[in-house]
Each structure stands twice: as structure tokens, then as C-alpha cells.
Amino acid sequence: MVTIEDVARRAGVSRQTVSNVINAPAKVREPTREKVDAAITALGYAPNAVARRLRTQRTSTIGVRLDAYSGGVSGVVLDRFVHALTEHAATRGLRVLLYAARTVDEELRHINELADGGEVDAIILTGTSRDDRRAERLRERDMPFAAFGRPWGTEDPAEASHPWVDIDGAAGTRAATAYLLGDAGPRVAFLGWPPDSETGDDRERGWREAMAAGSGDRAAPRISSEDGVAQAQGAIRTLLKDDAVDGIVCASDALAIGAHLAAVEAGRPGLRIVGFDNTAAAEALGISSVEQLPERVAAGLLDMLMGPEERRISHPPAPVGLLVEPQLIVR
Asked: Which residue ranges does the record assign to the HTH lacI-type domain (predicted)?
């Protein structure tokens, strides 16, 4: 088995220099790093992860909750995020540990267990909410963490108390609304979730801002529905009996698919509809949608957690927030 001493002899450097290249490359000058990397490649050296964890007291592991399977259209974005996080983490010598939790209390128990057992170096939260108890618990346990989702109530990135990355939902619906105003007509409705959903309210805000800034009919309706195809279909079926809207911006693809089915049923298959999430189902039906870019979220969170050294979790990571602007996909 090739050892770190073999790599050091091949590169003509000390054992410590090889260790720094593997664990803290920012400490080593680029020409030296290149020599060591060439020796590692030539010899086929693979660092012993178990020995490194024992030596450094680091697990090189990040924990993230895996949501319960919900079926239907929902959940696709988080699945893509977890997949992207796993891929990006692997390129930095990290692993991802998934844990399931159906309630906040259950997740708090998992956080305690992971901290007590020293099983992870950091945790990434998903599904954030106002006054998030999980964030408070992680601070109490002195566990580095970042969040996919803003800390609602203090969404200004300059006021971040911990690292977070989120999708700018309002920017996505603004772009969708502006597109429909130019392509379909002034009466663009919004189909969203019931009020007091913070993510839903953010997406509704983008629609309202675009309607006010453009040539939109400010009397265009705002319709509520639970996030299901059948529920959305029923809500839009009722709307189209009395209102000849020009287009509909939706808070999710599930809502957009239901709206599309109601439009076909009403004899308006060409009604312009834009969803949110850009799922395979929306693509198959030819429905325009807002792409969330979860891969960019995953990369951004790792950048925040790992700091300048790129191969070690910062403790604590710098508190900073980042909004990722989504992309409108027109079909």
C-alpha cells in the first residue's frame, strides 16, 4: 500500500507538506501543491479516511435531513438538492449523512444524537421557518451549520446570524409575470397557497410587484389552493367559469398542472400558465416554469461552510446570506 511517506519522497517534500496539501491546501504554495498532486496521481495514493478522522478529530461528514416521501410532484427540488450536495461534497473530500425526521421535535433529537456521538462536522438545515428551533439548538450545541432557506423575519443577507442560501422566489414570479404580461395580456392571475406560507407569500410578492410595475390589470384575481393537482384544478375550474384571464402564474408546478388541466377542460388549452420548480412533469406537459437551480444552492452552502481552506469545515462558519436568482424556462 502506498503511504504518505512514499508520496513525500516522490515529490521531494516533507511528510507534513503532503499532509497540508491533502487537508489544508491553502497553506501550500501552488508549485509545491502541483508537485505533490503529481506524485499522488503517479503513485495512486489514497488517503486513509479512517486514520485521518482519528488524527484530526474530524469526521469529514455533513448531516442533512431527508424529508419523508410525499409522492406526487412535490419534493423534487429537495431531492435534486441532496443529490447535488452529495456530488459537490465528494469533490471536497466530504461525505453526506442523511437522517429522516417527520417533525421538528424528532429532528431536534437527531441533532442531539449526532452532536453527542461526534458523527458529523456540520449540519445543513432545510425547510426553514420563522424562529427556527433547530437553529437555536445547533448554536447551543456549538455545531457548525448552514441552511437551505432564509431565516424568515431577518431575510436581509447583511443581517445573517448564520450562513444561508435561498432561492429568490419573488424574482422568479416577477420574471414569470412580466413574461405573461408581454406575451398573453394584462389580466394575469396568481394561483398560490393559502396565506401565511412564507415561501408562498414571497412568490406572491413577485407577482404583485410585476403587476404594479408593468401593464398588468391590478384587479386580476389571486386564487388560493392547497398544493395538489386536483385542488388546483378545482380552483381554476371555478375561476374560468366567470373570468377570462389572460394567463396564470403559479406558486408550484403541482398548481400549474392542475390549472392546465382545468384550462383544457374549459376549452382553453392555449391559456398561458407558468409554474415554479421546473419538474419533469411540467416539462412533459409543455408548461413553462421557474427553475430553482438547487445545484447552485448546494455549491454555495459548501463554500460558506468550508471557508478559504476548501477542505475543512470552518468553526464557526461566517454568517452570510445569499439569494440565488432562479431562471424562467419558457415552453
From this structure: 2-56
CATH number of 4-52: 1.10.260.40
Pick the CATH number of 61-167+294-325 from 3.50.50.60, 3.40.50.2300, 3.90.180.10, 3.10.20.30: 3.40.50.2300
Q: What are the CA-CA distances from residue 275 to residues 217, 248, 266, 269 (Å)? A: 20, 9, 19, 15
Could you name the CATH architecture of 169-291? Answer: 3-Layer(aba) Sandwich (3.40)
Q: Write the pLDDT tens digit of every residue in 213-272.
A: 988 998 999 999 999 999 999 999 999 998 989 999 999 999 999 999 999 999 999 999
Q: What is the pTM of this model?
A: 0.77
- Residue closest to 271 by CA, chosen among 315, 227, 240, 311: 240
Cβ proximity of 203 and 173 under 8 Å: yes
